[in-house]
Structure formats: C-alpha cells, structure tokens
Amino acid sequence: MKNVMMFGMGVLLLSSCSMMGGGMKNGTMANGTMSNGAMAVKQGTASYSLSRQPAATDINPMGNVAVTINGNTVMTSAKLTGLAADTYYVAHYHNQGSAQSNDPCSSNGPALLDSMMVGKSDAGGNLSLMGSVAKTVVQAATYYNVHTAKDASGAPADAGVACSAVKIQ
Questions:
Q1: Cα separation of 22 and 38, whole Å?
Q2: Which of these CATH numbers, 2.70.98, 2.60.40, 2.30.29, 3.40.50, describes 3-168?
Q3: Where is the signal peptide, in residue numbers (predicted)?
C-alpha cells in the first residue's frame, strides 16, 4: 500500500551533483556497496544528491533524496530548492532504460508509477516530497527522477528537472 504526503518546506541549503552520506541504521553507518555511482541500500537510510537535468533550463534545482528501507517497505523523502514557485512536481523511481549511458538518469528507463509522489513548490521554489512503497516495487530501480507536473494529477510535463542514481537491494 502506498502512502504519499505532500507539503512545502523552507529554504534548505543542499549540495548538488555528488553523493551525500551513506546508509544509517540505528544511528551508525550501515554497510553498503557502490554500484552505478550510488550506495546500495539494504536496510537503513542512504542519502543521494539530486543533480540538475538538461530539461531544467530556467530553474536551478538542488537537493537530496533519502531512501530508508525498513523490512519490506521503502520510504523516500526528497527535498529540493531552486524550483519554479507555486508549481506542481512529480517524482518517482525508474528502472534502467535501454539508452546507452553510464549514467542511469540518461538511460530513459520506464517510470515505476506506484512510487509516484506529487507536490507543489512554495512561493520560494522549495519542495518536499515523502512517500512509501513496497520494496518489491522499486527493488530494480536505478534512478529517482523529479519532473515538472502538468497539474495536481502528477502527469509529467518534461523528461525531468533533477535526478539521482539509486541502488536498492
């Protein structure tokens, strides 16, 4: 069962384009391995930086996505700044696509729609998204992508404005 909560947040200063942190479990670093530039999460939490995608021509999105695995549930929390004000965004995991690329975000993989999170940025262009999904839904995912949405339904309006490689085990 999928639970999705949507809300805006204040300004968060987050770095972009590099992996942040590793997995956390009971307050200590969890064991993980690097794969496709992303920490493999088995149990606990890993935090990944979201980097700007080519579709983000008039905005400068920065942020991170935290992935927490607790048993058979994957909980996701994404925080972004630098987005367009008062605009709907949709985020979800994707499986690896067939486009030849070492970067999963450029592989054009299929979206895993059960992992969809929709929210509206605040007046300052800040956005926070949270949701949970069964681990089996996203276990093969190789990246997490944030798109501008056409409206509150979450229909993507572009190929993505921010993305991060992920690895869930």
A1: 9
A2: 2.60.40
A3: 1-20
Q: How many CB atoms lie within 10 A of CB 13?
A: 6
Return d(Cα 137, Cα 128) in angstroms, integer.
Answer: 22
Q: How many CB atoms lie within 10 A of CB 102?
A: 9
Give the tens place of pLDDT for each residue, 19-58: 222 322 222 223 233 233 455 576 778 888 888 887 777 8
Q: Are 10 and 126 in contact (CB under 8 A)?
A: yes
CA distance 41 to 139: 10
The answer, as to whether pTM is greater than 0.70, is yes
List b or e across 34-72, with b for residues whose CB sees 16 or more CB atoms inside 10 angstroms: eebbbbbbeebbbbbbbbbbebbeebebbbbbbbbbeee
